[in-house]
Write a sequence for this structure.
């Protein structure tokens, strides 16, 4: 089991993709990875299940697809902002 906090912050695009490849390989080998990230594209690529936090508690737990489906949006980044109260409607 590994806990990784904002692992790719500050990396250039090539290095970030290399880290992603390594994490995908470790996942294939059965390693459980807890990843915190503010990069929703990273979350979409690397995570089987996600949790969205607001004020120290979970406002959502499930898959990326479930988060998007439960929000008025069609992208995880927008759904994340909606779950955290930073987007008020689905009209934008």
């Amino acid at each position: 089991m590994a806990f990784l906090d904002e692992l790719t912050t500050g990396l250039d695009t090539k290095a970030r993709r290399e880290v992603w490849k390594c994490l995908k390989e470790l996942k294939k080998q059965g390693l459980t990875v807890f990843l915190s990230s503010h990069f929703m594209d990273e979350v979409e690529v690397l995570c089987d299940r996600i949790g969205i936090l607001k004020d120290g508690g979970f406002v959502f737990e499930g898959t990326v697809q479930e988060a998007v489906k439960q929000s008025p949006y069609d992208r995880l980044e927008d759904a994340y902002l909606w779950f955290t109260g930073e987007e008020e409607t689905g009209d934008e």
In short: The two ends are 39 Å apart (CA to CA). Strands lie at 2-5, 33-36, 50-54, 57-62. DSSP finds four helices and four strands in the chain.
